[in-house]
Amino acid sequence: MSWFSPRLPEPPDPAPFDALVARNIQAQQRAADAADDVAQAADENRERVEAVVGAFKERTAERLRSRKQTLEQLLARDL
Question: 2 φ, ψ to 5°?
């Protein structure tokens, strides 16, 4: 080996970098799966909340109708 043409260093081993990239890809996939699960749960929760709100509105409307009928009956009786 001459000082004019030094020996080039060995290229670094790509295995640690490849393993890091693979772990990163797996972590991204897990994050995407978790985001999908959260979105699905939010949709299911929204549907359940809408159903509960709808039932509440129906019960409230029924109570108001009942109160109105009772009030009309009382007024009719007193007149």
Answer: -100, 155
